[in-house]
Amino acid sequence: MKYIKKMTLMALLLGFTSFAITDNFEAWDIKPVDGSTALTFSIFDEVKVIQEKLGAHVEYWQHDVMGDNVVSYVIRFNTGAEWASFKDKLAQSEEFQSWISEYWSILGPNVLASYSLNNILDPSAEKNIWKDANVVHFSSWEALPGQGSDMIESMQKSIEISKKYDLDAFAYSSGLGQVFFVMAGESWSDLQKKLEKRNASKEWNQHWMNINENPSGTFIRAAYSVKVN
After folding, report:
1. CA dihedral 133, 80, 18, 72 (to 10 degrees)
2. pLDDT tens for each residue of 175-227
3. Contact 172/119 with Cβ under 8 angstroms?
């Protein structure tokens, strides 16, 4: 049974690296231009208008990554078809090319990372699962050699337990490298209250003890983020 479960998880991952996109987002992580979030968001505002006309759903997030202020420009999609349609339209958009010509020399040097991530454990998920999420805690993990399916299985268990306490939890990856474990709440108080309830449970403590005794992944980094638009 465990072998079958691992094969199912591996098939899920392989399918999703082939662009089996459900809940998906693209993002730029950016160091604020001249240290100013207001200036950076004003540049975002210019391109947001263009991209939303092409069918995008855009959000801005601000987070503290190991004490380093970072803002994110996030575009969400429901399906691979939605993502592909947006990409085709964007490539033909003269407005977007004009924005690139005017602003990328300012914004580009401040881009810390750009990426596309998919929800790997909920094939039916859509971007509206984030509609009540205003704050998140995320941690990124890298599987130990040969233990990728074990780490995903562990995250799946973490999500199952979290949902018993009304704590929204998700796992995202590009299909290679790091996997992001994300927990979301309507507010910091809401997130903390649900975390405390889950963390006090016998089931969570047993699961966490198993993780520590038999690790399948290496912790990379963590951050708290807040949605600002």
Report:
1. -40
2. 778 999 999 999 999 999 999 999 999 999 999 999 999 999 999 988 899 99
3. yes
Q: Pairing mode, if any, of strands 135-143 and 24-30? A: unpaired
Hey, where are the domains in the chain? 2-19+120-227, 24-118
Neighbouring-strand partners of residue 69: 64
DSSP string, 177-210: S-EEEEEEESSHHHHHHHHHHHHTSHHHHHHHHH
- Structurally, at CATH architecture level, domain 2-19+120-227 sits in 2-Layer Sandwich (3.30)
Domains 2-19+120-227 and 24-118 share a fold: yes
pTM over 0.85: no
Task: Provide Rg for the chain, Cα atoms.
Answer: 18
Domain 24-118 class in CATH: alpha beta
- Of the candidates 107, 104, 84, which has an alpha carbon nearest to the alpha carbon of residue 96? 104
- The residue type at 191: L
